[in-house]
Amino acid sequence: MTDFRDRLDTHVTRWVNPTIGALKAYPVPDSTGLLKLDAMENPFVWPEAMQREWAELMSATHVNRYPHPDAPDVKAGIAEVFDVPEGVDILLGNGSDELIQLIAMAVNGKGRTIMAPEPSFVMYQMVARYLSMEYVGLPLTDTFEIDIEQTLRRIEAEDPAVIFLAQPNNPTGNLWGDEKLRRILESARGLVVIDEAYTAFTEADYLDWLSDFPNLLVMRTFSKVGLAGLRLGMLFGHAAWIEQINKCRLPYNINSLTQATAAFALKHFSVFENQTQELVRQRRQLSAQLAELPGLTVFPSEANFILVRTQPGQADLLHAGLKDRGILIKKLHGSHPSLEDCLRVNVSSADENRQLLDALTELCAE
Ligand SMILES: *Cc1c(COP(=O)(O)O)cnc(C)c1O
């Protein structure tokens, strides 16, 4: 038996790419029984009538056949709901995570580089590693702004194939500012992907910029508006780009249930808009209330989460203390040097925010 185990390990070590061997699979903490305020999900469920209508639609959706390869109903709904400009094509992914991977696959090659600010969304870096691409992180300032002169120098020196810019940024919550984005788009020879995962929570919107910049793609997702379980992301760009990236997509990546549900959700999109607007109102209130707690520094947010910094050495204690009280938030401390003592909390319903605040008030008084 041990002999078999040794042989197995020998095979795995011999053949798995060392970059993959050194990685850890994307960690998702067990949230059983906890109030989940760690992953930017929408806390609200659907009105009962909508739930019933959807259940009927699901029972009439047959899964014996393959899904439609191009999901035209979903794309038509997206074009209408998001006011997609004429001449802009759409590519759908199994979450925008998949789209990040498809973009990288399409431009991959020896010595090709992915660039992104740091700290930002971890999948940009992970995808670079999966594909043995170079990855360059651009350090942000103390207040998590882009240092534009340094960034332009790095772009010049590294000539990245893709720059991913989450706008607003995760986990910091801030916007980069139009002027900096414009200068990056003008100096980069490669693709610039503006990742608008949090578009529902901000006025910033770059779809219109597609007509000005031939190297721009804009990415969005249904996850943060209330459909995280669907796994549906969308990429907007000129046909010339979308056509190439589409070749890397596995056939039928958007399953029948997702297609039917997404088309249905788009018809009822005002329900989601009302929910996300409520979260924007709650964000204002929660930010103000968190700022009143002793020892917490609150960073401004244009998303459905808030970044806070605790007193030195307190992040672990607060994170664990909340967990003991049945609340799961994201501990960022330890994930990047500039996120020292940092935690990230979701903005949720009034009731759930209250539970978070009550628990934090107790913990901060200890
Ligand atoms: C959550 C998030 C995503 C991932 O979205 P999925 O569609 O769920 O894969 C992409 N980009 C950013 C910046 C995010 O925060």
From TrEMBL:
Any Pfam family from its record, for instance, is Aminotran_1_2
BP terms from Gene Ontology: L-histidine biosynthetic process
Where are the membrane-spanning stretches? none
Q: Where is the Aminotransferase class I/classII large domain?
A: 41-360
Q: Which reaction does it catalyse?
A: L-histidinol phosphate + 2-oxoglutarate = 3-(imidazol-4-yl)-2-oxopropyl phosphate + L-glutamate
Query: Ligase: present as a keyword of the record?
Result: no
Q: Does the keyword Amino-acid biosynthesis apply?
A: yes
PTM N6-(pyridoxal phosphate)lysine: list the residues.
K224
Q: State the superkingdom.
A: Bacteria
What Enzyme Commission number(s) apply to this enzyme? 2.6.1.9
Recite the UniProt keywords alphabetically. Answer: Amino-acid biosynthesis, Aminotransferase, Histidine biosynthesis, Pyridoxal phosphate, Transferase
Root EC class: transferase
Known cofactor(s): pyridoxal 5'-phosphate
Quick one: which pathway? Answer: Amino-acid biosynthesis; L-histidine biosynthesis; L-histidine from 5-phospho-alpha-D-ribose 1-diphosphate: step 7/9
Note the CDD domains from the entry: AAT_like
Q: Name one GO molecular function term.
A: histidinol-phosphate transaminase activity
PANTHER family noted in UniProt: HISTIDINOL-PHOSPHATE AMINOTRANSFERASE (PTHR42885:SF2), HISTIDINOL-PHOSPHATE AMINOTRANSFERASE-RELATED (PTHR42885)
Fill in the subunit field for this protein.
Answer: Homodimer.
Q: Which family does it belong to?
A: Belongs to the class-II pyridoxal-phosphate-dependent aminotransferase family. Histidinol-phosphate aminotransferase subfamily.
Name of this protein = Histidinol-phosphate aminotransferase
Q: Which organism is it from?
A: Reinekea blandensis MED297
